[in-house]
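Lab meeting, item 3. Inverse folding demo.
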């Protein structure tokens, strides 16, 4: 599964198989961290 995480003007993606996942970060802003952590909690 690929989940898009909107982080302002850029997007990050979480690619997971349900048990484990990786983050594909296309941005460089530290402000994106709260949005990524929220998406990981779902």
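The presenter then showed the designed sequence:
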């Amino acid at each position: 599964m690929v989940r898009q995480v909107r982080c302002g003007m850029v997007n990050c993606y979480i690619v997971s198989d349900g048990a484990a996942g990786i983050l594909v970060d296309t941005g460089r802003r530290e402000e994106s961290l709260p949005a990524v952590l929220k998406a990981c909690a779902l």
